[in-house]
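Journal club side-thread
Mid-discussion, someone asked how the predicted structure for our own chain would compare to the paper's figures. Pasting it here so we can look after the session.
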Amino acid sequence: MSLRKRIASLAICGTLVLGSINFAFADGARVVTIGVNNSPEQRATILKYFGVNENEVVVLEVNNQEERKYLEGVASEAQLGKKTYSCAYVEPTKAGSGINVKTANLTWLTSSMVASTLSTAGLTDADVVVASTFPVSGTGALTGIMKAFEDSTGKPLEEEKKELASEELIITGSLGEDIGADKATGIVNDIKTEIIKNNTSDTIQIADTINNITNNYNVTLTPEQQKQLEDLMAKIAKQDYDYNQMKDTLNGIKETVNEKLDELGEGVNQGFFDSIKNWFSGIGDWFAGLFGGNEDKDLGILGSTDDSVLGENAIIDATDKDAINLPSSEEVEGFFAKIWNWFTGLFNSDNSNKVEDNNTTPSSKEESNSGSTEDSSVDSLEQNSTVDENVQPDSSVENEPQDNENTNDSSNLDNLNTLDSNSSNEETIN
C-alpha cells in the first residue's frame, strides 16, 4: 500500500472514530427528568412531546421531597403542593449559547422566568424544555432542571446558588401575580444584571438600583416587595458570578421580555443610547428576515418538541419564538406526501383518459363529442381532489372515517377535564 493510501485510510478511520465519540457524548449529555406522580401513559406522552425514546436519553425521577429541599421556607404550602408532575429535558450546549428555554403547560412560570432563575443557579449554556401533560404551576420544574444539568455535565451546582435560584423563582412568581409575569421577570433580571456587572454590594446602592429599574418599568413596589428584592440581591452580590459568562443569557432574557411588553403596549423606558441600539438591531433583524430569516436556525432540543401531542389548548412559551408551534414530523411528512400524490395524480389522470379514449366505441365518441368540455374538466378536477383528501399525515389511519377522529378529540378533552378536576382536589400541583 502506498504512503498516500495509508494516510487516507488513517484519516477516514480517525473521522469515523471521532464521529462515534461525538454521537456518544451527545446522547450521554441529554437528560430527562420525570415527575414521579405521572402515570405510565403521561410518561409516554411527555417523552413523545420531547421527541425522544427512553433508551436514547438518561431518565431520572423527581419527587416532592426533592422540591421541598430547596423551596421549603421560601414557598408556601400551596405553592409546594404534594405531587410532582413537571418534567424537564436538558442538554448542555457550547460556550456562548446562553440558556434557551421552552415551556409547555406551566401556568405560574414563563420561559424567561425559568431562564433567569437558572442563571442564578449557576447554569451558563444549556437548552431546556419543561412540560406537563396538563396545566400545572411549574414550581417543581426548577428542581428537575438542576438535577438534569448536574447529571448531564457530571458537575454539581453550588448549593447556595441553587437555594438562591429557588428563592428568586418564588419572589419573581409572586411579584408576577401583582404586575404580570413578564414585567416581574424583566425587573428581577435587570436588577440582577446591574448588581453582577457592577459588583454592587452596598445596600444603599442596591436599593437605588432597584428603584431605578422599577421606575423604568413604571412599577411601584410595596415595602414588603422592596425588602424581598433587597435581601435577594444582597445575597446574589456575595456570590462569585462571572458576568462575562452570564451576559448572553441575561441580555437575551431582557430582549425577549422587552419584545413581549412592546407587543402588549407596555414598553420599558429606555435611555437614549439603548433606544439607538435597539433601532439598529431592529433594522438588522429586518434585513436578516428579508434574506432568508431564521429558516436554518438550530433550535437544539427546543426544535425537537411536538406541540400537537399536548393538544390545541396547551400553553406554550419559549425564549425563542421560533420554537413555538413547530409542525410535527407527521405533519411535515404528510405535507410532502400530498404534494407527491398531487404530482403523480396529474400523470395518472392523463393516462386514464388515454385508456378511455382508446377503448371508446364510435357511438360513445359521438356522445363524448356532443358533451361539453366543461363537464370533462370538472370530472378531472374531482378525481385529483379526491387523491388529496384521502392523504393523511399518518398512513396508518389513512382511510379512517372523520367521525372517529372527532370522537377521539372529544375523548381526549374528557380525559383532560378529568385530570383538571382531579388536580383541583389537591393543593397546587407542580
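Post-session note: The mean pLDDT is 76.
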